[in-house]
Write a structure and sequence with these properties.
Layout (H helix, E strand, L loop, with lengths): L8 E5 L3 E5 L10 H7 L1 E4 L7 E4 L5 E6 L5 E2 L23 H16 L5 H9 L10 H11 L6
Antiparallel strand pairs: 1-2, 3-4, 4-5, 5-6
Helix pairs in contact: 2-4, 3-4
């Protein structure tokens, strides 16, 4: 027998508003009717591109159908798409991919001996580590997220 869960938390989904939030759940459900009130949503059944949510800032979020037909955005395996933001912080102004790249930039800076941000940017721009996919913008985002205390 399934135990009944009572959802008591709300999160703020930027650009959408208040939503019920269950941190132990595998999904948070949005009403397409309510999403359409705030954003343009397109769907092309012929091209099978999923539901595309078009944001005012030019970013798009794609929701693909599960095997059972429920449309979802897989933020765990596809870091380019995000819909749920539960914290009101500077981190939320970035999409998941940008945030993930900033975390990588921060981690690599630690690994290479924590050079000053300006030096780190110079290393990246000169491609001194040819296998490094970090770019200047990732370093600057990391510094923005971590604040002034992050710079060695």
């Amino acid at each position: 027998m399934l135990e009944e869960e009572i959802i008591t938390q709300k999160g703020n989904l930027r650009g959408y508003g208040s939503v019920w939030y269950y941190p132990e759940g595998i999904a948070n459900i949005l009403s397409l009717c309510n999403v359409e009130k705030k954003h343009k949503v397109t769907y092309d059944s012929y091209m099978k591109t999923g539901l595309v949510l078009h944001k005012a800032d030019g970013n798009n979020h794609v929701f693909m159908p599960s095997k059972k037909g429920l449309y979802f955005s897989d933020v765990k395996n596809d870091t380019a798409h995000v819909m749920i933001n539960t914290l009101d912080s500077i981190e939320n102004k970035y999409i998941v991919k940008e945030y993930a790249n900033a975390r990588k930039a921060h981690s690599i800076q630690d690994i290479v001996g924590r050079p000053a941000t300006e030096d780190y940017i110079e290393y990246v721009e000169k491609r001194l580590n040819p296998n490094c996919l970090i770019m200047k913008r990732d370093i600057l985002r990391a510094k923005n997220i971590k604040g002034k205390t992050w710079d060695p």
